[in-house]
Design brief:
The complex is a heterodimer. By secondary structure, chain A is mostly beta strands. Chain A has 3 helices and 28 strands. In chain A, the strands form 7 sheets. Chain A has a 4-stranded antiparallel β-sheet with strand order 3-2-1-28. Chain A has a 4-stranded antiparallel β-sheet with strand order 4-5-6-7. Classes of the chains: A mainly beta, B mainly beta.
Amino acid sequence: MKKGHTTKQKNQSRFSAKLKGMLIMGMVAVVALTGCEKPKPPQPDPVDPIEAAASGIYVLCEGLMDMNNTTLTFYNFITNDIDNNYFLTQNGRGLGDTGNDLKAYGSKMYCVVNVSETVEIMELKSAKSLKQISLSGKQPRRIAFADGYAYVCCFDGDVVKIDTATMTVTATAQAGSNPDGICTANGKLYVANSGGLNYPNYGNTVSVFDLATFTHLKDITVVINPTRMAADSQGDVYLVSNGNYGSVPMTFQRIDSQTDEVVQTFDFAVTNFAICDNLCYFYHYDYGTEQCSVKVMDVMTEQIINEHFIADGTDLRTPYGIAVNPENGDVYLTDAYQYTTNGDVYCFGSNGQKKFQFEAGLNPNNIIFLKAN
Amino acid sequence: MTTCHASTTPFPRLSHGLTLVLGGLLVFCALQGKAQQQDTIYQLDAITVQGKNEIPAVQSIAPVQSMDAERLEAMPAVQVSDVLKLFSGVVIKDYGGVGGMKTVSVRGFGSQHTAVCYDGIVVSDCQTGQIDLSKFSLQNTGNVELVTGSDNSIFLPARAAASASTITLNTKVPPHPLNRPIQRSELPVNVDFRFTGGSFGLINPSLIIENRILPRAKERYPYIASSFNINYLQSKGDYPFILYYGNQGDSTSVERRSNSDVHIFNVEENLFVDFNAQSQMKVKLYYYQSERGLPGAVIFYKQGNSQRLYDQNAFGQVHFEHRFHRPWAYQLNAKFNFALQRYIDSNYLNAEGFLHNVYAQREYYLSNVVLYQPHKIISLSLANDLIYGNMNANLHEFVTPSRFQSLTVLAAKVTVRHINAHARLLHTGVVNRVKIGEASGNLSRFSPSAGISYQPLLNEELHLRLFYQNIFRLPTFNDLYYTEVGNRNLRPEDTHQLDAGVTYSKSFHWGLLEATTSADGDYRHTFSLFFTADGYYNRVKDKIVAIPSKNLFVWTMLNFGKVEMAGMDVNAHFSYEYGDSKWFKGVSLSGSYSLQYAVDRTDPTGKTYGHQIPYTPLHSGSVAASVQLQYVEVGYTMVAAGKRYTLQQNVPTNELQPYTDHSLSLTARWPMEVNRCVGRVGRRYIIELGLKAELLNLADRHYEIIRNYPMQGRSFRLTGWVKF
């Protein structure tokens, strides 16, 4: 969507349509990593920026709309090589336009490409495509997994269920308008209905589905324009509502998956977050002051335990993605700058000291860790 | 240029078209004209009579490039943008196909810095600030001209001096007695009917009817003429293209453009009145209507698009001028413009399941210009333009903005033996209003410009020129007020231009023919040369760009960028005329080269500092050639552009590959003389039948000017016409 403003549009009206889409697009999906292990104690800065806890990382770079420039960066920690167009290298074709989500499940990884309307299923260790599922007319946004199935929420209101073994669509269920966030917890599927294309009448519900039957159970009322969601190990679902960018501010909420009610509305703002091992790492970027803050919250006590995660004064311009390596607790933050130049990926130890940084593609939004063998 | 043709052509009695076949390129004939030194009120008047810049390009202080209808008829060109692509310093942002948007950037400035002047009055779009050239038909275009910097003439509306560069489009006009003696035997009505058919469902009939209602028998008698143009164009636009899924060697597929149809209808009525030798008036009524599909960017793995756009545009304009006894002259211009645009996306994923946006804008324009010429070497002018524009839309909480502008130009021009100089001071006053919320602030600003040209040897058409212009573009209504995006605190985008150049023209002829028909004599061989080279240095500050600054999801327009350009424009033209053969008439060859080093100077610590700005090739150029035979003319054009970048950062993933596009045309004209007695008047006139075949992009190169908007591959067009 951003591109709508930086390159010449076909015409102004089209610009407007895209603009509206923009309000909800281009966000970062949280890498909701499940089954985290205890972080290892902080390691000294290595001379060579190789992470012992992973053999490499994938970074999904969203690109800009209408430019077909979604790319996958692969940083091979063993050889120290960075390929900023790894999917193309491995498959002889590009991922497509506006890759919104990238997640790993089992031996595969799944890339949700919004404008191209595809879900690209790749072998995790090689990024070689196993299957491309076309979701024509649906505008897929984000993906979550449970019990051998992938669930993709789409902007047309549907949730598509994919069998991860056969890689085929097995069922479709309807959520609310313009779903923009999805996660699973406690045998249930939660879908955030942003209603982003109905500006100014944003959506204010989260749809709950029973995973076993894939049927709709109820709608939870939340602050308007809900988007990113992730669950912790206690079965709490955390949710960012973007509000209306005016009178209703961006709001961070907690849903109890036992009662399916909003049980807490936090008094601090969260733009994006990642949960690992009972810690929620989050950042907030204030566009007025152009300041960003990265903090850590304990999801057991819901208290902020570190107000200034970045300990070495590293300055991020426009954070765009956050992820935690479950193997060692390293925190990765991406910087998208002006959204039209290649972004950088920063790796911080859990002590908040920068370990290394490198340049990825345009608008890096999701990171996947390839386990060390 | 018509004047010059008439004075230099060896066959004045033949029809217009044929003389021009012989006349060759417009630029030259101008050079040979004897009247060129008379930079008097008479000449200034002539500029506005025909709306053309009558000062030859070689003498111009500001670089002028132009092409007229007769030349256009004999070269491959489908749209106005095809003509501008041949000019130096120009980048056409072409979204492909007949219906695709085409805007013009000159010397690295954004397209909002290029004004489009249609028959003497600037065409405006207060919403986007840029004019889509695909709206204008080439069928009734008499002349296309690009002036970089401020115009040589100072007897012009203030708005004409308020842009970094100006494209002038003039429609075909009936022959005027000032430009060409009208023979008594000529018909009082001229008709020009054309029909074009071509690849991908192109159908384009057009009709021009010119009527000399009251011919001027004597100098002091009134003269009234009218012209009526009607034009329809449709194209399915479903051309094939190659979709590249990566780099060289990666996957490709052959696809077809879809939802790229276009249907355009426009009609114009013009009235030309000379009340007497001192007073002239031109009136134009214009209506345009179009429907088009928006094919959108080609997206990997996705088919089809469902957006459509409907445009309606109507305007009426009046130009009046009166030449008092020296030293005074006065002109008045007035215009009312209304434009309505509807955008429909029938597949939009909101609650209604579709999106329907309607935008309407109006503009009222009044311009008064006074010229004072106390002495033959000096002239002064004062121009004031009042412009009121407003806009409404069916968007949520749309502010419904309006803007009142007053532009005032004080200009002076000095012409002495070796030196030609002008200077201008433009004052812009702007008052902004909105119906809801807060309006953008008001503005008052002065913008100077000055230029000089020097002719070292009076008997050689060698000129050195230098000009400086400081001008800005106002933020558009979209920049200021667009829902969530607009920023009311924007300042204008400011530009500085400095240009130094040299122009030269020379004409040689030898072998005087005995059976001469013109006063100057006709020669067996005529060789003409025209050359211009300009170096320039430009700067843009407070560039208006979109940056996410309210929050991550809402982008805002900001005065953020700085751009620095340094470049060179070179144009050369050669022609040879052979005066002693029935079948071989001559050849011509012209070429242009542009160097545009245009780099970002915004943030020295940023990743794009010093990088070439998007969609601006460092090197580009064009070639146009023609061979003129009896009845037949062969035309060839080539445009080429080097590597470009689609985004600010000059990295390989943002590269767009270089391209060349070759096109060929064959134009045949059969003039037939008809003698007929109507009452007591003997009528002797020419009926011309014509046929033009065009092979466009003959190498079938698949390329893009805007990323993911493929250009048309090889295509054909056939045009037939009859005119008398």
